[in-house]
Amino acid sequence: xxxxxxxxxxxxxxxxxxxxxxxxxxxxxxxxxxxxxxxxxxxxxxxxxxxxxxxxxxxxxxxxxxxxxxxxxxxxxxxxxxxxxxxxxxxxxxxxxxxxxxxxxxxxxxxxxxxxxxxxxxxxxxxxxxxxxxxxxxxxxxxxxxxxxxxxxxxxxxxxxxxxxxxxxxxxxxxxxxxxxxxxxxxxxxxxx
Length: 193
Fold this sequence. Notes:
By secondary structure, the chain is α+β, with helices and mostly antiparallel strands. It contains six helices and eight strands.
């Protein structure tokens, strides 16, 4: 479990979380790269095929909501040699518009650099998902390119905006200064010999 100083706790996905993820996948397809219509069997197959060495799905819980998930953070295509991965995040429908997107994404990015020891984190955001794009730039992602007209949604092709952040840019972000070098609330350094 990763407790961020911004009030978001990230915990690993459990089987009991699958119903809310199924609802999310069926509800939020407008702003995602994939369009999927799934049932419980599809969800179980997906869960059973997660390769923990390449993918980590984290449920985001806000301390004020006492155990109720507000969103998720996805670590995908982990490259342990080059220390990089693809990230994505979602906020569950009833928690949108309350500032959770930035907090969930910040906790996820900080987890990636602080705990997983990554050098680089990448993400892509569809041009019609303005809220996700604002959150990504707020946490420190920089736009690096555009995949023009690459995702089809209801009769139109949308651009996919490619963003990235590297460790040396992350560690000097103004938002990190308030945490005095460690974002993880559950980490307490022990005295060294």
